[in-house]
Structure prediction request, 141 residues.
Amino acid sequence: MRHVLKSIGAFAILAVVLGGISQVAAHHSASMFDFTKSQTLKGKVVEMRWVNPHVTITVTGSPSADEAPADWLIETTSPGNLVRAGGWRRDAVKPGDEVEVTFHPEREAGKKSGLLMELKAISSGEVFTANIRDQEKPGLE
Prediction:
């Protein structure tokens, strides 16, 4: 009986550890983005995925006139951070909206993705930022 209880206990611990590993492995750092560079992309929103841990926006457009339009995946922070950072809402942009997006591109050449710095909705003129540090007040830490 004691052997069975030990086996069940070991299995339970293993299940907890393995469950936690998937959560840690799912998160990544921002080291893939080149923070020394920025690009601006004009285009149309294909989709905004308002989900944790990162909101993503797919935009079809081109950062330069000599480049053919393509789908760009723009990553941001979490929904809660976006709300605090710059007044974001779930419906801030919708598919078909024209936008101008400034972002840090990926370090790997040819990747059509980046980390959002600022998004401007052309029709409304609203500007949304993604850096919660810019919104912090001194002395709160």
